[in-house]
Amino acid sequence: MNILAIDTSNYVMGVAVLKNGVVAGEYITNIKKNHSIRLMPAIDQLMRETGTAPEDLDRIAVAHGPGSYTGVRIGLTTAKTMAWTLDIPVVGVSSLEAVARQGRFFPGYVCPFFDARRGLVYTGLYDQDMRLSKDETNVLMEEWLQDLKKLDESILFVSQDLSIHEELIRETLGDQAVIPEEPYLFSRPSIIAQMGAMKEPGKIHELVPNYLRLPEAEAKWLERQGKQ
User: Fold this and answer.
1) Residue 101, exposed/middle/buried by CB under 10 A (0-12, 13-18, 19+)?
2) 3-state SS string over 63-132?
3) What confidence tens digit (pLDDT) does each residue in 127-174 have?
4) Backbone phi and psi for residue 30, each to the nearest 5 degrees, phi listed first
5) What pTM did the predictor assign?
6) C-beta of residue 96 within 8 angstroms of C-beta of residue 122
7) What is the pLDDT of residues 166-206, one digit of tens each?
8) CA–CA gap between residue 102 and residue 188 (Å, rounded)
């Protein structure tokens, strides 16, 4: 099975091509540039370099959130448009699980998270078998850490936003918190491709963003409607 994987759900942008279970190519950047401008050129370049024609693809896997509202929409729109045009399945993958799998060989819990501003994070807790021990949620980091402290087990924290919350993590959990080296803090699109190969695809129009919370504009609109 040949799979194209796309991840623009957060600051890091990634594209990968998986051919019959082998990573043929992977492109990742961690720079402040617009995903909407750079995504299609990156896909085109990687497919050319791996000798992959659009008609060679059997499936597309895409990170569908949580994360940046705009970033999630960019990746999903691109993946669904390509899948519709090529008449192939598209599979959505949790952005948090994709990051968590960077620590799948850690002998304890793995906690991926993305900063959601104002002290909030998108997060979840995974066990050694990459099963959710605590559901993905949008929560105050301080409250989340107090809850994790009760587990009294080692927890590996993986996040591109680690520097924002690292001090609080260490103060709250002490030696219970394990911080990996920098290369393991970002999701890899090749992992998203592998996850996509294992998932059962649904209908293209049923694949929607997993925001975990309403966009601010939509929340304000609903608030105004309620007042009226």
Assistant:
1) buried
2) ECCCCCHHHHHHHHHHHHHHHHHHCCCEEEECHHHHHHHHHCCCCCEEEEEEECCCCEEEEEEECCCCCE
3) 999 999 999 999 999 999 999 999 989 999 999 999 999 999 999 999
4) -130, 60
5) 0.91
6) yes
7) 999 999 999 999 999 999 999 999 999 999 999 999 999 99
8) 8
Q: For residue 22, what are the β-bridge partners?
A: 19
Cβ density class 198-227: b for 16+ within 10 Å, e for less: eeebeebeebebbbbeeeeeeeeeeeeeee
Q: How far apart are CA 82 and CA 104, in angstroms?
A: 31
The CATH code that applies to domain 96-184 is 3.30.420.40
Helix (H, G, I), strand (E, B) or coil at 4: strand
Residue 148 CA to residue 227 CA, distance in Å, equals: 38
Please, is 23 exposed, middle or buried when counting C-beta atoms within 10 Å of its C-beta (0-12, 13-18, 19+)?
middle
Q: CB count, 10 Å around CB of 154?
A: 14
Residue where the block lists tokens 């720079």:
31
DSSP 201: P
Structural contact between residues 110 and 133, judged by C-beta atoms closer than 8 angstroms: no
Domains 2-94+187-214 and 96-184 share a fold: yes
The CATH fold of domain 2-94+187-214: Nucleotidyltransferase; domain 5 (3.30.420)
